[in-house]
Design goal:
Layout lengths: L2 E2 L5 E2 L1 E5 L25 H13 L4 E5 L9 H8 L5 E6 L4 H11 L3 E5 L5 H8 L4 H14 L3 E7 L8 H11 L2 E6 L10 H6 L4 H10 L2 E5 L4 E8 L2 E8 L13 E4 L4 E3 L8 E3 L1 H5 L4 H14 L6
Parallel strand pairs: 3-4, 3-12, 4-5, 5-6, 6-7, 7-8, 8-11
Antiparallel strand pairs: 1-2, 9-10, 10-11, 12-13, 13-14
The chain binds guanosine-5'-triphosphate (GTP) and iron/sulfur cluster (2 copies).
Length: 307
Amino acid sequence: MVLVDRFGRPVTNLRISLTSECNLKCFYCHREGQDFSFREMTPEEIERIVRIASKLGIKKVKLTGGEPTIRKDIVEIVRRIRPYVEDLSMTTNGTTMKTLAEPLKEAGLDRVNISLDTLDRKKYKEITGFDVLPQVLEGIEKAIKLFHPVKLNMVVMRGLNDDEIWDMINYAAQKKAILQLIEIEVPREMENSWFFKKYFYPLKPLEEKFEELAVEIRERKMHRRRKYFIPTEYGIAEVEVVRSMHNTVFCANCNRIRLTSTGHLKTCLLRKNDLIDIVTPIRNNASDEELIEIFKKAVLMREPYWK
Ligand SMILES: Nc1nc2c(ncn2[C@@H]2O[C@H](COP(=O)(O)OP(=O)(O)OP(=O)(O)O)[C@@H](O)[C@H]2O)c(=O)[nH]1
Ligand code: SF4
Ligand code: SF4
């Protein structure tokens, strides 16, 4: 059984925010579209929700935050949900990977995406507020030894790190990681904000360049993301481009539903007022059937954001 929304989009993927807290303070952070936590889910509650989701055909789970690995019980959470999931991944800032990559791998994590906007220590501090680039690079090395694939997430910002794109492509090729170049994305009402105006760096012209250079191009259904295989002096770099705004097909195949760290199902990263509480019913002894109904209600509320 797979749940399908009113726009014909099957929901096969659950993104779970485990906490809204983070040990870094990136100035552009979207915190997975949620406010700060007034409560967090326990490992048992998370396991129950994932078990229900798996009954409904959701077999891909991504753990996010804030920073998911600052939870003391992160290894237990991974171990508990592993049996219900076919693809279990995590998006992390990499600061804890040096010590946690191994226990997470042992607990059953399949793969990690690590944020890396710059290879310049000063700029890293400027973006994240902390001088921890060397620690993150060590974490990336460790993760690459254990997980496949490792994806590096670079949010491209005009005047800040757009001059480093080719260095990052070379770095990714050298490390055999996939580089995800992410165009800044904001909700519609922020398109006139100073942040967007100052830092938005359109990736379309770069994609045109990649088209010329690539020896192979693949397209993912999700977000209509294109992956370019670009020759470098270190071998072929795999570069995926995440370009959401003004991309009318971006949401057409969105297969993701979210679970906020406060225990609400959320239908879309960018929408407001789309939360459905699932943890309170669990705390009030709801049956599996009642929880399934909550999932169905959330899926029916889904709609594409960019149309
Ligand atoms: N609008 C939107 N953007 C998303 C969504 N999921 C991921 N993104 C964007 O993609 C970037 C990278 O996301 P990740 O958390 O690394 O996950 P991913 O690359 O989408 O997932 P995998 O391909 O499964 O590893 C995020 O910073 C967002 O900008 C989504 O559901 N909606
Ligand atoms: S590392 Fe991620 S969660 Fe933490 S502040 Fe930066 S963007 Fe936000
Ligand atoms: S509908 Fe679009 S904006 Fe919303 S979560 Fe899906 S891909 Fe992202």
